[in-house]
Amino acid sequence: MSSLGIADYSIQAIQSGQGLTGFGLSGWVNSVAERGQEAAEKRRSEQQVAEKLGKDMRDLLPDAPHGWRKQSWSVTQSKIMRGQYRGQIPSHDELEKLAVEELAPKFSAFADEMNSYSGKKFARREAKQTWVYVQGKERISVRIRQIEKPRKARTMSEVAFSRMQEHENWDKDDIAFARIRGVVFVETVSDFEHLAFRTIEADMIVPDGSSIRITVKAQASDRSIKKILNGINIGRIRQFADPGNSGPAMAASSDAVRKRREAALERERELLRTAARDRAQHRNNVEANAERFSR
Questions:
Q1: 138-147 and 211-219 as β-strands: parallel, antiparallel, unpaired?
Q2: Is residue 184 a contact partner of residue 104, using CB atoms and an 8 Å limit?
């Protein structure tokens, strides 16, 4: 077995909880087969989404409303949103030029492609999935992408990433933001941390168990955010995600997908029921904590 095979065996054995000796060659062979099947399913899922929603799902995002400008995503845009950009914000044309320069392939492009967690590769992917809407001081980025169906972490990098997210979100809560054409968008809030931008998301589960996720990052009012959200072609996504109980796509979906859909719908109903109460409680908590830590 090669050094790469030995390293992979060790990772899979640890993840299985059986240890290096208990996992065995048969366990490793089965894990390779399972991962191959998952990769094939992922490719089929991506192909199906591309056929139904288009290869570039950004086409489902709206044009800029009257008085707004639509801009390309870039690292600079992200820094502006996070409050990390120093100096005068570049003009529209300058931002578009920066987007091209920052994401252009460099000599290290091959290394970026080989490393699935490369910052440059992630930035290129996000740029292809995101539009930024700007009016005055208001800035709203909207990202649309396909999310794989839930599965167990397979590598140490995936485990570390999952744990990092859990650590980052320990003090955050989800509160219903708005219901747009039958889809509930949820805002992530924190009682203890001043967030540089607002984060709002919605997931629409498709028949194969993956989902179409819309993520909004905004420095803007509720009214402006809802104006942008109302322009998204949600009807087309819902037609694909909810073809009806008698449709062939739904008939072929597994019990696990049905249960995930039902759980998501119940969570949406609960979020809507408690939205007003949770927002009032969140405001009270923020004021109480601000007063507490200012002493």
A1: antiparallel
A2: no
- Expressed in angstroms, the distance from the first to the final Cα of the chain is 63
Strand 138-147 and strand 172-180: the pairing is unpaired
Return the bridge partners of 69, or none.
134
Confidence of residue 245 (pLDDT cuts 50, 70, 90): very low
Residue 64 dihedral angles phi and psi, to the nearest 5°: -70, 130
Q: In the beta sheet, which residues pair with residue 146?
A: 212
Query: Mapped to the 3 state alphabet, what secondary structure does 208-272 carry?
Result: CCCEEEEEEEEECCHHHHHHHHCCCCHHHHHHHHCCCCCCHHHHCCCHHHHHHHHHHHHHHHHHH
d(CA 51, CA 232): 19
85-163-46 Cα angle (round to 5): 80
Over residues 148-186, the pLDDT tens digits come to 876 666 555 666 656 666 656 666 788 999 999 889 999
d(CA 213, CA 222): 20
